[in-house]
Fold these 3 entries.
Entry 1:
Amino acid sequence: MTIRVLVADDQPVVRVGFAAIIDEEPDLTVVGQAGDGAEVLRTVAGCRPDVVLMDIRMPGMDGLAATRALAEAAPSTRVLVLTTFRRDEYVFGALRAGASGFLLKDCDPQDLLDAIRTVAGGEAMLAPAVTRQLIDAFVAGSVGARPRPDERLGLLTGREVDVLRNLARGLNNAEIAAVLGIGTATVKTHVNAIFGKLGLRDRVQATIFAYDMGLAGPGGSG
């Protein structure tokens, strides 16, 4: 199945460059381009892409606002944020807005293509530098320092909380299984249950929820 991609960036030369790289792949195709957030929303409504490659800084409606709007209007469309900026508020803002991935524009083209395939497949994708930044910020207490009450946490069983806590540490299903002494298939079942009960789409959102609840990082045992 061909993955449909929309490229959003306020610089035409950047859009064209990304589109050329993507269209070279037999399993990827660019179905639209946009220069600002409002145009992203209009174009998505017409061409229904699987993935939006989203710049953050665009005139008018920026990439963060467009990502939030897409999460409501087109939840099946995944957003992969691509930016030159490493500032904390952009990382946290994009992930909280509903983005499934975050890459820096200086990444290798192959990493970009792999990231598009990853988020299209329902997984989350964070650049290593961004992941390190996210973890460092949480550990330093710049975000998530005070757990925020959320009644959804009470929907989880004790075992699901254990799985969520380890997921937030960055462990994959096999690693979680080893830590908890259960089967990998059982971990996958718990992860899916966590997503369903909490109304989350992927491991990035689950990780943010875990930090907000104090299950990991400052105030938690992760």
Note: Confidence is low (pLDDT under 50) at residues 218-222.
Entry 2:
Amino acid sequence: MDKLTVAITSMTQHMTDDEFMRDVLQRIATGPTLSKDLPRNDARRAMRIVLEQRADEVQAGLFLIALRMKRETDEELAGILEAIHAGITPHPVKVDDLVVLVDPYDGYLRSTPVAPFLPAVLAACGLKVLTHGVHSMGPKFGATHEQVLTAAAMTLPTERAQASALLEHDNCGWACLSQTQLAPELAGLTTLRTRIVKRPCLTTIEVAVNSLKPHKAVHLVTGFVHKPYPPVYARLASTGGFASSIVIRGIEGGVVPSLTQASRYFTSTDGHTLTQADLAPSQVGIQRQERAVPLPASLSSDSVRSVKSPENPFAQQLAEHAAEVGLAALAGEPGYARDSLVYAGAVILVARGAAANLSHGADQVRTVLDNAQANAHFRQAGAMASAAIDSAY
């Protein structure tokens, strides 16, 4: 640490929580030119105070908004992620390697999301895959993984032990956890995040929450749209204990690339060095007119899609449509949904070293879709989760 950081740390370490939060807010909430960046330890302490709800709601909301307005530093993001992990005891899962696949928590509004079905497809290809999220999150309040899977009549695990059992089972190999089980303290801020309206730094950080501990290594797969984010996610993944990160330029910031345009993804094993790979749909034999699974006509008007509020009725309708086309793809039906699963699946298989090239990866995905193995893995997760919940009562 430099001399100024040491001096600030020395002054703040003996402060009460209230004194400390007042001091932090005075530093970060003084406008675009006068605001000061927080040392990592101060960001960590402030976030612990917020997570433990020892700060009042005004202070907590101002802390998150001021960081966003100032623009968070790498050290601040790392400190906040460390604060979240400080409230989590990692749960063991008896697999060697685990892939954690995370789409934006606030979901989709402009296209039909089929990534919720991707973990089952990848599991049928031999990977162990966890996805996590929430039912609904602002500021977009779009269709989320949890909404889509629920609309597909999927029973989701209600605790981490159940998710571990699903991941360990060879005929399943995937699970979806709610943030309520993954990081309960962070989930406790959902109402606050809704009330502050704007997108806080937590939207970026929560994809890198690492809550399950396999025998060997855990790997993060997530998406981006804006150019600055791949190095941010790579650094967060390293801070969170992930052995590697795969960051894909995808539709609405998710992991499924455009079906019509060139794209790219980045990999990193140290959080600093990124390796870029260029993508084109033609590499996996895809030629489409629309960049993603189209919205149905009933949901395509801007007046309908502009609704951004909790319990967004559009999001639920979109989730139901996504469930319909996703289940059809798992059943072997051709179309945009199948192509999206083939393309994204191939990218992840190559990035994880499970396929020699994109063509080979696409062949693997098409095989498990055509022979119903992906569908079987999907159904197995629901059956096992239902049985586990029933046995608990």
Note: Residues 108 and 142 are 5 Å apart (CA to CA).
Entry 3:
Amino acid sequence: MIEVTAHDSIQDFEPARWNGLFPRELEDHAYLRAIEDSRLPGFRFVYFAVRDGERLLAAVPAFLTDYRLDTTVQGGLRRVTEAVARRLPRLMRIPMLALGSPVTERCRAGFDPAASPDQRAAWLDAILMRMETFAAERRLGMLAVKDAPAADDALWRRVCPRRGLRALPGLPGATLDLPWHDVDGYLASLGAATRKDLRRKWREASGLKIEWRTDLDGIVDDVHRLYRATLANADLSFEELTPAYFENVLAYMPGRAYCVTYSENGALLAFNLVLRDRDRLLDKFLGMDYAARERYNLYHVSWMENVRHCIEHRIPLYESGQGLHREKTRLGSRLHANSLWYRHRNRFLDGVFARVERLARLDRLEPEQPEHQAHRA
């Protein structure tokens, strides 16, 4: 008999059984456990599963948070919403249940590999129904799917409208194919101005010490200081990470997670948390010393180091995540659309959101400079 269950911890699932639903996924059971154990402020996690007896058929991670309505609002309207938030903080925050994760690249629904398209649609629909009752029991107002990838768009569009969810464009992800034998091959694929710009920035950074580390021994405080400095300068951020997040990812994913550090005379200027396997390198978070921007172009230096690493280790794909899509296109990347599905459980409020949703469209946002986002991903 088919049953949909909700779980408070990823550890309710055997890693092999969970990962079997998500083939070739870097952000796997170990990564989700690292997030869960990091105790991110303002978030709780839940995991929906479809079972037939002891057999695990489908699963989706999810999270609960008080969502601030002006998270994606900018400009003059942002100043207005901040004033309202100071006077009426509860008005600007809505308890939300969302499929996906605040710290993954996209929302992937995992299915038994033998499942047919109709079975996948039926199981996902059952998860959305369970999501509705879960939210009603806890008086959560907003339901959402965060970053549903375009690759699965047919499935989401088949199921979400049945449950009253509407789609908004999200920030696209970016990937760079790397078929070249050396960095010169990559640079030759770019426009002349971009090639010259990257060569100069890479050359000017030749004095930096670059290390690929598997732990944060001796630098954990510096890493979090740089992360917080970057977060403070970000135009858009959703979650706030803890020092435990970086330590957990490295500890729980040996051989697949690295912290790339950039130092000058023993001082840490930047770090980049990345995940990798033989098929791709996934760029998660970049933190930097903002005083060093006058001496080095740390965003582009770290980009070039990741390209170099991929080519040297014959990793064919570099995934740099969301944000800065114009700059990433200039650097040779392809963009991949994501969607945000949502609705409010109160019909009146849902109608209001439907009328003003264009003000918060993520696809309109683009930081002016690479340094103006908290992380690449």
Note: Confidence is low (pLDDT under 50) at residues 73-81, 371-377.
